């Protein structure tokens, strides 16, 4: 699972370049730990695992922003299970709710 975690590139909306650096540093540390534990694992190479782009450049990122807004609104008036009425799948803190 950790190997998959540190080999999947994640894209976020442009907001704070400092955050991207911190997340990439954390991913690199996790990758080093995985490599020590599993010496045959080749890692991800030189490509950063976390990147920022304008949400206007990627439809998928814009859709994620919209879904996050809906989720936030639903949580303000209900609980985590209320998200199941709006979304096909719901995870909260790593636990599948629906």
In terms of structural class, how would the helical and strand content be classed? alpha+beta
Q: Approximately how much helix is present in the residues?
A: 40-55%
The biggest sheet, with number of strands, parallel, antiparallel or mixed sense and barrel status, is: 2 strands, parallel
Low-confidence residue ranges: none
Q: Structurally, how many domains make up the residues?
A: 2
Mean pLDDT: 79
Order of helices and strands: HEHEHEE
Strand order of the largest sheet: 1-2
Number of helices: 3
Rounded radius of gyration (Å)? 16 Å
The tally of beta strands, per DSSP, is 4
Q: What keywords describe this structure?
A:
alpha+beta, 2 domains, 98 residues, globular, two-stranded parallel ribbon, two-stranded antiparallel ribbon, 3 helices
Q: Could you explain how this protein is built, in words?
A:
- This protein has helices at 2-5, 17-37, 59-77; strands at 10-13, 50-53, 91-92, 95-96.
- The chain is an alpha+beta fold.
- It folds into two domains: 1-53, no CATH class; 55-98, no CATH class.
- The chain has a two-stranded parallel sheet with strand order 1-2.
- The protein has three helices and four strands, in the order H-E-H-E-H-E-E.
